[in-house]
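Reference record:
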Amino acid sequence: MTKTKPTKISKWYLGQTIIIEPCVEWNQERTYNELNDLVIKIKNSLPEYKFIIYPKDSYCYEVNGDWNVCFGIIEYGITYTYMLMSCVQTKKCYGCSFMNTHYINNIGHNSLSEYTCPDIYEDVEDTLYDLLIEQKENPILIDCFEI
């Protein structure tokens, strides 16, 4: 029997406007409510930042559903976006930078990443990682999805 190697993708293009880049992975699917609770813990751990947690099915059509929670942090008039997502295909969860390319110029949104806002990105990623360690989730930092 031949085993196939997993396909690796560094960016997931969802529709024509959404780009999702993986940052943190952990080996457990989560419900929408569990992901939302984790986002609230991140927000509460970083009170120095102005967070927006988008209600389910409210950010944009392409990311509607129970599989993710989108949030943003406002800095210098720009909303930097990030999501926690659960993948039924890989049976894993991910923390991901993401953006809707139409929103960059239209409403001032951009991906929360090490390139766009490195200090805030590092704080969010470190906080997520620490919270997952506390929950014994064994997170790993990643730069691609394996599917």
